[in-house]
Design a protein that fits this description.
It comes from Rhizophagus irregularis. The chain is of the alpha+beta class. It has 28 helices and 25 strands. Helix 6 packs across helix 8 and helix 6 packs antiparallel against helix 19.
């Protein structure tokens, strides 16, 4: 029998479920070994559990209970998860130690086999940076040994993508958290609910009004994966919520009632120590410790008596700290607070707003509205509804037979059942949903067993029509105002462009007829320029044409603007241009998108994709989510052209757009310049924010790029490479070619393995770092055999450094001789392999190459460019030689 897991909230229910399982086993002739049953108990006083007379012995195992490859303990102790990851690494390293694998093979096994196993275990634990570094130590030593590198070689050589490209556990964890945490926060309804509960519990535990997603969490956290993950991301300046950046979608994350939170005043180390005390005294904001005038601070005993709690015991440290920081010490006789805290706190009543449809109406209230054929429907309000569409349920009333008179009040009786009935009871009472929007309360009187309104049927119909008409007008105005607000919050442009968009908005018609629009968008890249921040910016001219089906050319909407972007990305611009165009389209419409086919496909695939986890991986996640949400709320769908006439219309519009972009504008910028405000694109409550910049999609891919940049930064700040960067303000080196040479990808591919490849790469890395085993280096390593670092080959009595090795008097040839001989030997090699074209190229550039190498280096002062070549660094001037041809 396969493993079966049963989860229950108490022992009684668990025994009941086990009994059902065993009944099923008996029916199907299945045998279950009760002796192998494992039990996990949490907060249970009853110790023993017996099944068919056998007591479960394996209970709350210290080693943990295995479930889907992860070991869980009853107390959720993190050590078991960490030990599991450590055992995976150690078992892999044990194999690497005795297997005859070179460094490339070890790295391939690590990245492809071991890393996914570790990632799976990281779903149950969040490791600190120090823990990850310690876990990587043994692997680092093995790789350096197989790569013939010294133990002191900087780790960036191993982890940099362009050299060895070993995956670090810490980098892996950050990439995983950037995606998984957002998935939990914004995933399906159950995950969202669980995440909100965790955040609310943490807010109460800290006792703060602020959102935990916006706090820099520095205190210790136990047994809370979500909060530990948030804390780790915070250490890398990544937040999932920022209330300075976003205001609308996450207002409820903050507890309102004051301006400044207590935790913003007290020291970080005292936040958790004082949390329980502050909670018991109901102190959340600074105003809670101030007197009614908002100028003087309360005394401790006065505050306790006011709250009705005991005054016994010492004054807590957090309150003393507040006294020191808030009270102005210039006058010791008063408890007046400092000026920066004055005038900020005002006492005010808290108003609670109730929705009309949730109000409990008076007894026997009759509600009426027009429905089918504009004929009145009547219902007596009874109770609330769980339906998403309707808020109320009532008893259905109908006209009494043979009493219908248009000019008199109708006689109403309880309906005994009709097609509208939603009741499951058989009591001859018809229960129906009450219309929320277009209904009204009517006054009635009781006459015998019937109810009679104080209105004629004709009057009822006309008044109900008026209610519906007024509501329709209000709805139209609300929709127009909502779209105006969207334009103001979403688009940053000149006032004339904003006015043009607002004037292009039209009201929805009350009819149910679906409108059809052509939304055509095209763009053209113009010359790049340096913006005000000193960065290269790319400008695109964009043109929109919105045309309603069967409308004249004069009635179509034409807009044009220029868009600036620092990263050249036409897809992002086109997707954002669609958002601008969608705002102008009425609800309940179909649109034919005249745009890049790949973008149309991208939008459709995103909308029809039911997996939120897959959607998060999209590079344009935030933009596409906004489009999806907008289209669902406004009942807009994307359709393809269905006939030849529509195809002709599209071709005609495209032709006119191309003429505007190519002939009329040429390389000029448009009159208007627009910018999309990213904050307004956010739909989810929680988003990824790095240094107050919103990450718009591809979260895991983004973090991978950041990790790569961090290791590149390690190269820039390495003491061993200082001389190559300090004076390189003119950017003379081609680092892409340099790293290809250093990693030996010029001779071998990334997947080719051999001892020659290992030796050559090791030699090149050591030259780059000036880390060859010279006497100077060996003395620093405290090799006992050596007495000093003096060169024993020559009589100059100089220290044998990396520089000295190349210019030692005992060398067989000088650097200049080696240079010319190398070119000659390379020419012989080309000639021998019959690469005649390459021989000709080499002869043409022979003098230029020698000239460049013999010139004085601008980076390595007092040396020629030959020394740059010895370090393995490729000067950009060699690229210009080939460009001249």
């Amino acid at each position: 029998m396969d493993d079966t897991t049963i989860i229950s909230n108490n022992k009684k229910n668990l025994e009941k479920m086990i009994d059902i399982c065993h009944q099923f086993f008996n029916i199907n002739d299945i045998k279950a070994n009760v002796g192998k049953y494992e039990l996990i108990k949490i907060n249970s006083k009853e110790k023993a559990l017996e099944i068919e007379g056998n007591e479960i012995k394996k209970m709350n195992s210290e080693e943990g209970n295995r479930y889907l490859g992860i070991y869980f303990r009853y107390d959720n102790k993190r050590k078991i998860y960490k030990d599991k990851i450590s055992s995976i690494i150690n078992s892999a390293c044990n194999i690497f130690n005795w297997k005859k694998l070179n460094e490339k093979q070890i790295i391939a096994v690590w990245n492809i086999v071991i890393i996914p196993r570790i990632e799976y275990q990281l779903a149950a634990i969040v490791l600190t940076k120090n823990e990850c570094t310690k876990l990587m130590t043994r692997l680092n030593m093995i790789i350096k040994k197989r790569a013939r590198l010294a133990r002191s070689t900087p780790n960036f050589v191993i982890y940099d993508k362009d050299i060895y490209d070993v995956k670090h556990i810490y980098d892996l964890q950050l990439e995983m958290l950037c995606k998984n945490l957002l998935y939990q926060a914004n995933g399906n309804e159950k995950l969202k609910k669980l995440f909100k509960i965790v955040m609310s519990q943490e807010q109460k535990r800290i006792w703060t009004s602020r959102c935990p997603g916006d706090l820099n969490l520095v205190y210790k956290i136990r047994n809370n994966w979500n909060i530990e993950a948030i804390k780790l991301l915070n250490s890398e300046n990544i937040y999932i919520c920022n209330h300075e950046v976003i205001n609308n979608i996450n207002k409820h994350h903050i507890i309102e009632g004051g301006d400044k939170d207590i935790i913003e005043i007290i020291d970080e180390k005292n936040i958790m120590k004082s949390a329980l005390s502050r909670k018991n005294k109901k102190v959340l904001f600074i105003k809670d410790v101030l007197e009614i005038d908002g100028v003087n601070m309360k005394k401790w005993k006065h505050m306790c008596i006011e709250l009705g709690v005991s005054t016994k015991g010492k004054i807590p440290l957090w309150f003393k700290e507040l006294e020191l920081k808030l009270i102005d010490n210039t006058n010791e006789n008063t408890r007046k607070i400092k000026k920066e805290y004055m005038g900020k706190f005002e006492r005010s009543n808290i108003n609670i707003n109730y929705f009309d449809e949730n109000e409990k109406q008076e007894k026997n209230t009759i509600i009426s509205w027009n429905e089918e054929g504009e004929f009145p429907v009547f219902a007596e309000d009874k109770k609330g509804s769980k339906s998403k569409k309707y808020k109320r349920i009532g008893i259905h009333y109908i006209y009494k037979e043979d009493t219908l008179d248009w000019n008199n009040s109708p006689f109403l009786v309880i309906c005994e059942g009709c097609e509208k009935n939603i009741s499951k009871k058989k009591d001859k009472k018809c229960m129906i949903y009450i219309e929320n929007k277009n209904s009204r309360i009517i006054k009635t009187r009781k006459e015998g067993e019937t109810i009679k309104p104080y209105e004629t049927i004709n009057n009822l119909i006309q008044k109900n029509k008026c209610v519906k008409a007024v509501n329709e007008d209000e709805r139209k105005n609300e929709e127009i105002n909502r779209k105006i607000d969207q334009i103001d919050s979403l688009i940053k442009a000149e006032d004339d462009f904003i006015t043009l968009m607002k004037n292009s908005l039209t009201e929805n018609e009350t009819g149910e007829k679906v409108k059809r629009y052509y939304l055509m968008i095209d763009l053209k890249k113009i010359k790049s320029s340096i913006n005000a921040n000193g960065k290269r910016a790319f400008w695109y001219n964009i043109i929109w044409i919105l045309k309603e089906d069967n409308a004249n050319k004069e009635e179509e909407i034409l807009m044009s603007a220029s868009y600036e972007i620092c990263n050249e990305n036409e897809f992002k611009i086109l997707i954002r241009s669609i958002i601008i165009g969608l705002i102008l389209i009425n609800g309940n419409s179909e649109i034919i998108l005249g745009i890049n086919e790949n973008i149309k496909k991208l939008i459709k695939e995103f909308i029809f994709n039911t997996s939120n986890r897959k959607k998060i991986d999209n590079d344009y996640y935030i933009e596409l989510l906004y489009i999806e949400d907008f289209m669902i709320k406004n009942e807009i769908i994307i359709v393809d052209e269905t006939n030849e006439e529509e195809t002709v219309v599209i071709k005609d519009i495209r032709k006119r757009m191309e003429q505007i972009l190519k002939k009329d504008l040429k390389e000029k910028k448009m009159r208007y310049k627009i910018e999309i405000i990213e904050n307004a694109l956010l739909i989810n409550e929680y988003n990824l924010i790095w240094r107050k910049n919103i990450i718009t999609g591809g979260f895991r891919k983004w973090r991978k790029k950041v990790s790569m940049a961090i290791w590149k930064n390690e190269i820039l700040n390495s003491n061993k490479l200082n001389d190559l960067f300090i004076r390189n303000f003119m950017k003379e080196f081609d680092w892409r070619t340099t790293l290809e040479f250093i990693s030996n990808r010029t001779t071998f591919t990334k997947r080719q393995c051999s001892s020659i490849d290992t030796k050559e790469r090791s030699y090149r890395i050591k030259n780059l770092l000036k880390d060859l085993p010279t006497y100077e280096v060996l003395c620093k390593r405290e090799v006992e055999v050596l007495e000093n670092s003096t060169c024993i080959r020559c009589d100059t009595n100089e220290e044998e450094t990396w520089d000295h090795v190349w210019i030692c008097n005992d060398n067989e040839a000088t650097l200049d001789e080696i240079l010319r001989e190398s070119i000659s030997k390379f020419e012989e090699f080309l000639d021998k392999n019959r690469r005649l074209e390459d021989v000709l190229i080499l002869r043409n550039h022979n003098i230029n190459i020698v000239t460049i190498l013999e010139e004085r280096s601008n980076i390595l002062i007092g040396k020629s460019r030959i020394w740059e070549m010895l370090r393995g660094v490729f000067n950009d001037r060699f690229n210009h030689i080939t460009k001249q041809d």
